[in-house]
Amino acid sequence: MPGTHRRHDKTVIAPAWAGANIARSVVQGVVKSMVNEVRLPTEAEVRQARANIAGVARRTPLWRLDVEIPGTTIYLKLENLQPLGSFKIRAALNALKSKDPASLRRGVMAPSAGNFGQGLAWAARQLGLPVTIVAPETAAKTKIAALEALGAKVIRIPFADWWEVLTTRRFAGEDGVFFHPVADSDVIAGNATIADEILEDLAEPTTIIAPVGGGGLIAGIGSVMRRKRPGTKILAVESEMAQPVAAAFGAAKPVAVTYMPSFVDGMGSSVVLDEMWPLFRDTVDAPVCVSLDEIKAAIRLLAAKHHVIAEGAGAAAVAAAFSGRAGTGAIVCIVSGGNIDAAVLGGILNEGIS
After folding, report:
1. d(CA 288, CA 51)
2. Could you tell me the CA-to-CA distances from 223 to 45, 48, 115, 230, 244 in Å, in that order?
3. Residues in the chain with pLDDT < 70?
4. pLDDT single digits (tens) 207-249
5. Which of 136, 155, 185, 265, by CA, is between 20 and 30 Å from 143?
6. Three-state SS sequence of 19-54
7. Distance of alpha carbon 353 from alpha carbon 25, whole angstroms
């Protein structure tokens, strides 16, 4: 098949939009989609990341969820309170500040469903750099609007094509410095700062639950906990619409699953990235799955109990904790973001009115 190359029992197909240059690169084995080296951050790198994001990213609070569950206390790490409504300001800012400024003169680009793109666009604007964000068509309208308001050039493409950009790290016609929203050591170090803050507020968490899209968030958090609190259980929450982490743990390697778009646009994929799988193995104890109805209930619970607005991915960890499938003890839920379309939020809240 033209534009197809089989390597390591995996078929990589250059999509129609990619153009001849990328197709030739795939055929020649130039695209390094499966061999990008990503590693967990050191303690020194996490410390530097905290310095890089200081004064911009907030040190978010850790709140106790106001519910009574025997034997369990649920805490909320409220990353939805970040300036752009998502934890990804940490990752984007640290990644940008870790680069040589001279290398960024031609601009920056990233594939993003919205939250990482917003962080990158905000940081790039401070430096006067042009930014292009390639977004999946499933991205929330509110996230796309926020990107455009930050001055980003937004290109929307089908999810399958967007995933190809994520894995090949290329997009035809754009030559800005590529920033991967997940599989990047500086991104993971930025995310790891969340764990440092958790331990400053709660010395001995029993379990930490984080939503999983590509794995950069949970890898960062898990890297700190493995080093400082190896007894803390790290759970990766997925929705019923896509469970690539569960599939990978079952097969002991990344395997493709069916991905079905939903209002939970900030998490889920069709497969664990090859370069991220070793990090999952090293930092995650187990995956846990929640239903869309459980996520909706968690969104309503957060709004009712604490007036907290969470997007689908942001409420997923709370859904897992509240279901009982995460066990008992001191459970920390990463409320990863609050960027949800008003119409979607309104519909979910209205569903809870009897």
Report:
1. 33
2. 11, 15, 22, 10, 21
3. 1-36, 354
4. 999 999 999 999 999 999 999 999 999 999 999 999 999 999 9
5. 185
6. HHHHHHHHHHCCCCCCCCCCCCCCHHHHHHHHHHHC
7. 54
Among 59, 318, 112, residue whose Cα is nearest residue 211: 318
Distance CA 300, CA 349 (A): 6
Q: Which residues share a beta bridge with 25?
A: none
Residue with tokens 């499966």: 34
Burial of 2 (0-12, 13-18, 19+ CB in 10 A): exposed
Residues 142 and 342: beta-carbon distance below 8 Å = yes
| Contact (Cβ atoms closer than 8 angstroms) between residue 287 and residue 238 | yes
Query: Which one-letter amino acid corresponds to residue 236?
Result: A
Structural domains of the chain sorted by starting position, each given as residue range(s) with its CATH number in brackets: 1-28 (no CATH), 43-86+185-351 (3.40.50.1100), 89-178 (3.40.50.1100)
Instruction: Record the tokens describing residue 331, joined without a space.
Output: 């459970």
Determine the length of the chain.
354
Instruction: Give the Å distances, CA to CA, from 125 to 121, 130, 253, 269, 275.
Output: 6, 7, 39, 29, 30
Per-residue pLDDT of 13-65, as tens digits, reads: 223 223 323 332 332 233 333 335 799 999 999 999 999 999 999 999 999 99
DSSP codes joined into one string, 208-234: EEEE-SSSHHHHHHHHHHHHH-TTSEE
238: its two tokens: 């997925």
